[in-house]
Automatic annotation (TrEMBL):
GO MF term set: deoxyribodipyrimidine photo-lyase activity
Photolyase/cryptochrome alpha/beta domain boundaries: 1-130
SUPFAM superfamilies reported for this sequence: Cryptochrome/photolyase FAD-binding domain, Cryptochrome/photolyase, N-terminal domain
Entry keyword annotation includes Lyase: yes
Keyword Flavoprotein: yes
Name of this chain's protein: Deoxyribodipyrimidine photo-lyase
Alphabetic keyword roster: Chromophore, FAD, Flavoprotein, Lyase
Enzyme Commission numbers on file: 4.1.99.3
Family per similarity comment: Belongs to the DNA photolyase family. Belongs to the DNA photolyase class-1 family.
InterPro entries listed in its UniProt record: Crypto/Photolyase_FAD-like_sf (IPR036134), Crypto/Photolyase_N_sf (IPR036155), Cryptochr/Photolyase_FAD-bd (IPR005101), Cryptochrome/DNA_photolyase_1 (IPR002081), DNA_photolyase_1_CS_C (IPR018394), DNA_photolyase_N (IPR006050), Rossmann-like_a/b/a_fold (IPR014729)
Amino acid sequence: RIALVWFRDDLRLDDHPALRAATEAGYLPLPVYIHAPEEEGGWAPGAASEAWRHRSLRALDAMLRARRSRLRIFRGPSLQTLQSLLAATDAEAVFWNRRYEPAIEQRDAAIKRALRRQGARAESFNGALLFEPWQLATRRGDPYRAFAPFWTSARAAWREPAPWDAPGGFDALPDEDAIPHGLALDALRLAPARGWDDGFWERFVPGERGARDALSAFVEGALHGYRDTRDVPAARGTSRLSPHLHFGEVSVARVAATVRASVDAPPADVERFLGELGWREFSYHLLHHFPQTVDTSLDPRFDDFPWAPPAPARLRAWRRGATGVPIVDAGMRQLRSTGWMHNRVRMIVASYLTKHLRMHWLHGARWFWAALVDADLASNTLGWQWIAGTGADAAPYFRIFNPVVQARRFDPDGAYVARWLPELAALPPPLRFAPWEDPAALRRAAPAYPRRPLVDPAAGRAAALEAYAKVRGPR
Ligand code: FAD
């Protein structure tokens, strides 16, 4: 008896509920992956994300081969591919772990109905979250719109995760040769041809082993003191687990259990880290209840917001890290070089785009989507709407990050700016954050760096406050 185990954003064997259900029900698991970006509802994965996926799929296949199995790769449409695989293999069942992006939820519900109609067993599981997005609700049964009460109720409902260990090997499939072999991974053309992603792999190792190593390194290192150092972009103060979690190379239950089992870690650091996993949970809660927010502001008062008219040159400067504001440019260059950006700097660059340049948050969300290896529809939507002030639990309208003040506070010795903008390293730290204040020194140190910021931090703040004041009334 065979069951197809349909791998998606759960590219691991450890603590994999669908694989567990298949093996515990006595099926021989047949691992399949279906490439179908056109089914993602306008949010087909971006280039950085696909580069990661390429390596992650390769790693998963290698792990399966070490267990006398392999990953069979196909191109969509997903339903037809599953149907023809069921027919070709005499499999009785299809098991998968749920994804929660709105277009995928709809697609998967339709697939489940169609497979069941034809007599197959089709079942899905939660392999991605600590809580199902619909599980927690206010006393009145409404979705939460603010993080603090959401997380209080999550902590009250907390059940200590008990992750499942994958078997060391799988039983051989009958008549292996008769089963469709699928495509070679390279045929999907996920990996960039020109190597612009080389810098990504200096820090990151996609795949389950890389994820477990990153988790161990974090638990032994940055977890200690996490509460304070998580905000310092020059430090290695966070876990960098986000792409591993997005691709499901490690389960969030495994992460939570490992962190909580770390006996010598200060409880305040552990609790703060769990809270960050909580933001991830909250983002899925919001995405589920407010699916329209992937491209419209949750707060309808922003339908008429006076966003700045289109300014392609300004947007290009922001993307390229050439705004003339060093902390913003450093972040955008870190993103381009590594496929990742520190959370504090994500907030600063997002605030500069939406408040100072007053561009619609979707411009930023789309660029992050293309450039981040951890691009995640739930977290990205929440992050952008939170900063723009258009979403649930939004930062208050008057919270406009001053990039110079932020840099002074979180990068006091200027190490982060110097790392990503080496041309400014010769300027001493206070000036390194606002080089326009000494034009002669700037010209000497970095002749090619913009003379002036695209929008001056103080003037931009005033203009943004005026625009935001128009939507300040009650919801
Ligand atoms: P750690 O501090 O080690 O946190 C552990 C984990 O908690 C992270 O891996 C992540 O899964 C989760 N987490 C932490 N902070 C947040 C948060 N604010 N919201 C949701 N989950 C969080 N995160 C993404 O994974 N994908 C995105 O596309 C994404 N886009 C963002 C866009 C903007 C504008 C902003 C402000 C934030 C965005 N974030 C996104 C959230 C956050 O910046 C990253 O999760 C974090 O920087 C990842 O680094 P880390 O793994 O070292 O985090």
